[in-house]
Amino acid sequence: MSNIAIIPARGGSKRIPRKNIRPFLGKPILAYVIDAALQSGLFSEVMVSTDDEEIARIARTYGASVPFMRQAETANDFATTADVLREVLNQYAQKGSAYDYACCLYPTAPFITPTLLQRAFSILTDKQFDTVYPIQRFGFPIQRAVLLNDEKVQWFQPEHALTRSQDLEPAYHDAGQFYLFNTKTFEQTLRLITDHSGGIIVPEMEAHDIDTEEDWQVAEFKFKLRLMQDV
């Protein structure tokens, strides 16, 4: 069995400039993800897909490979993650390298751990899912969500207006960290999430999606707390 870790890290981040290599508590945020993939022992290849020479240099410094630079078509604002993954897998195939499983790891997900990757891979292979990815529980029941229209509030699901929170089924969302997937199925569907995908629950303090400066600060705060708990 041969597996590859693919970390898509283009240079054109808009909301947080140079986001993928910005220092996160002392080292480039990308380095945490590379380290987790390497330490997991799951992958024969840990590579970074980028269009940026500085990102490529930093990726190599921390142990990842950058065997080729990303094409312009997959480095623009409209390219999807699936487009990037397909390009990478095709490039390796042309060199005679094929993989049974792959993992797309987002470069700004420093909470990923080797243990989490190993647990997710066990679920993927044991259950024979197409994909497995981390999910988090919503902090408040989504059945009690409201709409706001011209300052008027309306229930999304009025039938649950009086339902006790503890009686409502928990709901989860994508934690935005990684997708472990069967490459054969992906190449057939070009979809990371299918009707046969699995999830692995991660606690609120072990993931944080980073899109804004405030997100960055919260993520660093969470990470510091985790480090203190590990001491």
Automatic annotation (TrEMBL):
CDD domains: CMP-NeuAc_Synthase. One of its GO terms (molecular function) is N-acylneuraminate cytidylyltransferase activity. It comes from Spirosoma aureum. Its EC number is 2.7.7.81. It comes from the Bacteria. Keywords: Nucleotidyltransferase, Transferase. The lineage of its organism: Bacteria, Pseudomonadati, Bacteroidota, Cytophagia, Cytophagales. This is Pseudaminic acid cytidylyltransferase.
